[in-house]
Amino acid sequence: MSAPAFDALGAILLIPISAAALLALLPGYRVTARLNVLATSLTLAASLSLFFLERPTPGQYLLVDDLNVVFLVLNTFVGFTTSVFSASYISHELEIGRLTPNYLRFYHAMYQILMFAMNLALAANNIGLMWVAIELATLTTVLMVGIYRTHEAIEAAWKYFILGSVGIAMALFGTILIYLAAQPVMGGGMDAMLWTMLMQRVARFDPALLNIAFVFLLLGYGTKVGLAPLHAWLPDAHAEGPTPISAVLSGLLLNVALYAILRFKMLLAANERAIAPGPLMVAMGLGSLLFAAFMLYRRRDIKRMFAYSSIEHMGIITFAFGMGGALANFAGLLHMTMHSLTKSAIFFTVGHIAQVKGTQKMADIRGLTETHPLLGWGLIVGVFAIAGMPPLGIFLSEFLVVSSTFARAPVLAIPLVFGLLVAFGALLMRVNSLAFGEPQGSTEPVKASIVPLYAHLALVLGAGLYLPPPLVAWFQHVAGQLG
Amino acid sequence: MNGFDFDVAHLFAGGLVLVSFMMLYQDRLYALLNIFALHAIVLALSVGWQAYIQDAPHLYITTGIAIIFKGIVIPVALHRIIQRLGIHREIETVVGIGPTMLLGIGLVTMSMVVMLRVTVEADRLAREDTAMALSVFLLGLLMMVTRRNAVSQVIGFLSLENGLILAATGAKGMPLVVEMSVAFSILVAFIVIGIFLFRIRERFDTVNLHALDRFRGDQQ
Lengths: 483, 220
Prior knowledge:
The complex is a heterodimer of chains A (483) and B (220). With 483 residues, chain A is mainly α. Chain A has 19 helices and no strands. With 220 residues, chain B is an all-alpha fold. Chain B has helices at residues 3-24, 29-54, 59-85, 97-118, 124-146, 150-170, 176-204, 209-213. In chain B, α2 packs parallel to α6 (150-170). Chain B starts with a helix and ends in a 7-residue tail after the last helix. The chains are: A mainly alpha (483), B mainly alpha (220). At the A-B interface, α5, α6, α8 and α9 of A face α4, α5, α6 and α7 of B.
C-alpha cells in the first residue's frame, strides 16, 4: 500500500510545476488568477491527504515523515490562502497599471515555481536536492521582489540576491562538509546524502567536521531565515515586492530555511561527540529578537515594520528550537505555525490598506477603523495577535517558550521577556495611530478579499482558545523527535 | 592514489588560490575579467584531473562547463556589459591593496588551520582540496566585501562558487546531484545577474552600489 501516498507526494510537486508552465502561457487575468487558486487548492488537498494515507518508504530523493508533514501542510495552506488574496490584490495592480499583463503571467508562473521549490525542499530526503530547492526558491523570490522595477524594488532585489547567494553558497559548503564527514563511514555514493541513512550512522562521523559544517549551514540557511546580523535583505525585500510575496516570504520561505537548520540540528544532536547545536541557535535567536524589537520603533513604512516583526518572531522560534527539549520544541512548532498564519493575515490587510491609501508610509495612514472597518479591525486583531495578546494563539506559544525557558535557564528568560515587551510596545503604539484618530488619505471602498484574512485570524484565535488533542499529540510527537 | 596524481591535483588547487589572490589586486575591470577567465580555466584543469584520477567520467561535464561557460561565455558577456555601460575606466580603491592582500593571507592561513585540523579522517586529497576550497571561498567573499562596483561583486561571487566546485569534486564519489546543481545555479545566477545589471543600467546610469545605497525606504 505504499503507492497512494507517493502519488500524493508526487502531486504536491507536480501540480505546481505543471500549473507554472500553464500559467506562463495563458493570457488574461481572470482565467489565470482562478487557475492559480485552483492549483494551490489542489496542492493543499494533496498535502492534507498525506495525513491519512500510509507513508511510503523513503526513496533516494523524497521522504515523508511526521516532521515534514507539518511543514508541508502549513506551506500549502498558506500558499492557498495567499493565492486567493493575490487574485484580488493583483486585479487592483492591473487597474492602476503597476503590473502589465505580461508581467502578470510571469508573476503567476513564478508563484507556482516558488510553491514547487518550497514543497520540494520540505519533501527532500537528499541534502543536495534540498539545497537545490532552496536555491530555486531564492531565485524566484528575487525575481518577484524586483517585479515592479522601481528604484527601490531593484535595490531590494539586488541586495536580497547578493546576500541570499552568499548564504546559499555557505550552505552548499556546509552540505559538502557533511558529505565529507559521512564518506569515511558510509563509503560515499548517494547514501551519504540521504537524511534517513545519515541519521542512522551519524554517531560514528567525525565530530570536528560536523561542527564546522553546522556553523556553515547555520550561517548559510540562517541568512535565509533572516537571523540578525544576516537579516539585511529581509526588510527591503518585504517592503518593495508585491504584498502576496511578502506574505509568502514571511509566512513560508523563512520556515523552509528554518526547517533545513532543524534537520541538520537533529543530525548533530545524534552525534554525542559533536558540539551541542542548541547554544548557537539560542544566541542567534535571542540576538535577532532583541535587535528587531528595538528596530521596530524606528520604522515609518508599514510593510517594513512587519518585516522586522518577522525577524523578531523567527528569532523567538530559533531560540525555542535551540533550547530544545520536548516543551520548548513544542512551543517552537506552535509558534511557527501561529506566526505563519498571523503574519500572512497581517500582510493581506496591509496589502489592501496600501492599495487603497496609495502609500506605505504609516504617517499618512490614520483612522482605518472609521473608513474601512473590516480592514481596520482586521489589522487590530492581527497586530494584537502578533504582539502576543491573550487569548490569541501567539500568546499561548510565547507563554510556553517563556515558561520553558524559566524552567531550564532562568537567566536567558530575562532578555527574552525584555525583548518581547519592547516589541509589544512598539507594535501597539503603531496600531493605535493607524487604526484610530482622524481619517487620513483616500476613503474609497475597497474590493478586498476578506475571507483569507479572517480565516487566518479565526484559526489563530481558535488555537489560542482550544487546541484539538490530535494536533497536540502530533506536535508533541514531533517535538520529541527533534531532541 | 600515487604521489604524482596527488601532486598534480595539489598543484591545480594551489594554483586556484594563487589566481584568487591575483584577482584581489586588480583595479581595472577588464584586467579583472581576464584573471577571472584564468581562474575558471585553472578550475577546469583541476576538475578534469580529478575526473581522470578518480575515474569519474561525469566530472568531465563539470570541466566542460567550467571552460566554456565560466572561462569564455561569462567573461565575454561581462566584457560587453562593461563596454555598454562605459565603465571600463573605473578604478576601484575601496580598501587599499596592501590591507586587502594581508587580510587575504590571514583568511587563507585561517582556512588551512581550521580545515586541516578537522579533516584528519578524510582522505588526503579531499583534505587538501577542502582547505584550498575554503581559501578560495573566503577570498571571493573578501572581494565582494571590498568592491563597490556591481560587476566586480558578481565576479567575486563567481570565484567563490569556483571554490565550492573544487570542494565538491575533491570529495570522492559525491553524487552527480551536486555538480549538476552547482552548474545549474551558475547558469541561473548568471541570467539573473545579467537581467539585474541591465535593469540597474536602465534606471540609474550607474552600476555603483554606493548610488543605490542612498535609497532607503525608511527615510522620510
